[in-house]
Structure to design on (220 residues):
């Protein structure tokens, strides 16, 4: 249950950016060849989109990555909602898990930093019940971002997804089973770090061009 913070070298960001690129770099470097997707050597990662928190359109999705128990190779699934921004507001571009807990746990990241909490009282609940309980438990100051699994993930179903926002689902690659194999019930994120582009004026200018080119039509 060791928690460590890592600073990603600038050259990695320059080559791979963040989001999916950062995740692919990290998993390629850290997962040993032949690792069992449902074993402790697999790594499960949650990463925010590259432009999350900027004025750019369609930039708020988050991704979960790992070695897929369905294919035995690269696995990823993405999802909408607000969890991508929740990752950023905790001060991170990605959150990665390796190993396996001896008992059910969830990760809480709040103003005091990350900590592992006991999840035995919510193990076995479906995702809607789990999210409701964790929001009530940790939502004193702001609504937490919660990503969690239900019984399918706990029982290592290879089609299990990871739920957020009471039903949004990161559904591909069976990564809910990877989460269950690690004894990880949920992530609960309550960070409040501001997310600011390095140059807000340039970012706004860059975001305006595709916004003007976009045409939204509602079929009658």
């Amino acid at each position: 249950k060791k928690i460590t913070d890592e600073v990603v070298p600038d050259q990695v960001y320059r080559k791979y950016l963040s989001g999916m690129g950062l995740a692919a770099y990290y998993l390629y470097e850290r997962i040993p060849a032949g690792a069992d997707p449902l074993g402790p050597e697999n790594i499960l990662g949650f990463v925010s989109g590259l432009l999350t928190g900027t004025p750019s359109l369609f930039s708020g999705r988050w991704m979960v990555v790992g070695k897929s128990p369905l294919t035995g190779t690269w696995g990823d699934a993405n999802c909408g909602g607000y969890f991508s921004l929740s990752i950023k507001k905790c001060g991170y571009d990605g959150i990665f898990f390796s190993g396996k807990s001896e008992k059910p746990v969830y990760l809480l990241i709040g103003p005091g930093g990350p900590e592992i909490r006991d999840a035995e009282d919510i193990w076995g609940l479906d995702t809607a019940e789990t999210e409701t309980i964790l929001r009530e438990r940790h939502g004193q100051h702001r609504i937490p971002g919660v990503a969690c699994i239900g019984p399918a993930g706990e029982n290592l179903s290879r089609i299990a997804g990871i739920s957020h926002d009471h039903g949004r689902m990161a559904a591909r690659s069976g990564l809910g089973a990877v989460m269950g194999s690690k004894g990880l019930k949920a992530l609960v994120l309550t960070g409040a770090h501001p997310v600011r582009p390095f140059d807000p004026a340039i970012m706004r200018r860059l975001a305006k061009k595709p916004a003007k080119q976009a045409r939204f039509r509602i079929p009658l």
Observations:
- The CA atoms of residues 113 and 147 lie 18 Å apart.
- The first strand starts at residue 44 and ends at 48.
- The mean pLDDT is 93.
